[in-house]
Write a structure and sequence with these properties.
- The chain is of the alpha+beta class.
- It has helices at about 10-25, 130-140, 185-200, 220-230, and strands spanning about 1-5, 25-40, 45-55, 60-65, 75, 80-85, 90-95, 100-115, 150-155, 160-165, 175-180, 210-215, 230-235.
- The strands form two sheets. Strands 1, 2, 3, 4, 5, 6, 7 and 8 form an eight-stranded antiparallel β-sheet that branches. A five-stranded mixed β-sheet has the order 9-10-11-12-13, with helices on both faces.
- α3 runs parallel beside α4.
- It is elongated and about 75 Å long.
């Protein structure tokens, strides 16, 4: 990897640095005092502050402050980056057309501008995923319950694809929803939508069971499952076995469940 850094560059020098990087498809970081303006599905303005701007060759841009892990503003991959000097300030612009959006970062001063020639061709090897959990159940259905027979994966329904569809020992249809981490009430609601969709498909008089599979769940999720007549099985995605109990586990029932809507 090559790195080329300018310390406290003049705006024109930073402009040339960035334009060359955009042309070569390199990653860039710019740190300095700036304002941020967004126009698209809404509008927003961020006043002057010291911020780090990360521009990636896939078209994404992230504006970070010194707080929190998420950017204060960003644009997704597929945007077009450009730079210019307007009214004595360096302007970095990121645009896309579907939908029409524009993010402008105006630098009052630039403390550092770095360009990285990155070579990263390695694929991420993820363990403990929902796919791992699926394969554990398909290889040994009895870890879900004795007599469970998995019939389809990604079975389509009016509510979306069902992770695993099967039948229990009595031939009753079973919807299995998989999550790789601790789940909240939104995951329970998602399972309920799949079960309702199959009940409509098979006829409301026919029973359909729903089983949520995850390492653990919050109290609110457990209450919702019980109220809706749905079930929960605790399995570790990496081992395919019930997770080791953690007496100090924190109840995050008030937090948004990042996995529950996927």
């Amino acid at each position: 990897m090559t790195v080329n850094t300018l310390h406290r560059p003049a705006h024109r020098d930073a402009l040339v640095h960035l334009e060359d990087a955009f042309e070569r498809g390199e990653m860039c970081t710019v740190f300095g005092r700036c304002t941020v303006d967004y126009d698209g599905r809404a509008t927003s303005e961020l006043g002057p502050g010291d911020r780090l701007v990360l521009l990636k060759p896939d078209g994404s841009i992230l504006v970070h402050t010194d707080e929190k892990r998420t950017p204060v503003n960003w644009q997704p991959p597929g945007c077009t980056h450009s730079a210019s000097v307007r009214d004595g300030r360096l302007r970095i612009r990121s645009t896309r057309s579907n939908p029409d959006e524009r993010l402008d970062v105006h630098f009052e001063r630039v403390e550092q501008c770095s360009v990285y020639g990155v070579d990263d061709r390695s694929d991420l090897k993820l363990s403990g995923s929902e796919e791992d959990l699926r394969q554990h159940i398909l290889a040994n259905p009895s870890i879900l319950e004795t007599g469970f027979d998995p019939l389809e994966t990604e079975r389509q329904s009016d509510a979306g694809p069902i992770d695993i569809f099967g039948e229990d020992a009595d031939g009753v249809p079973v919807v299995v929803e998989l999550k790789r981490r601790r789940v909240g009430p939104s995951a329970a609601s998602q399972l309920g939508r799949y079960v309702d969709a199959l009940r409509r498909e098979f006829g409301d008089a026919d029973p359909v069971r729903g089983i949520l599979v995850a390492p653990s769940l919050t109290d609110r999720a457990a209450t919702l499952l019980e109220r809706e007549g749905l079930e929960f099985v605790a399995l570790d995605p990496e081992t395919g076995e019930p997770p080791v109990e953690d007496d100090d586990a924190e109840d995050t029932s008030g937090a948004r469940d990042a996995d529950s809507d996927t």
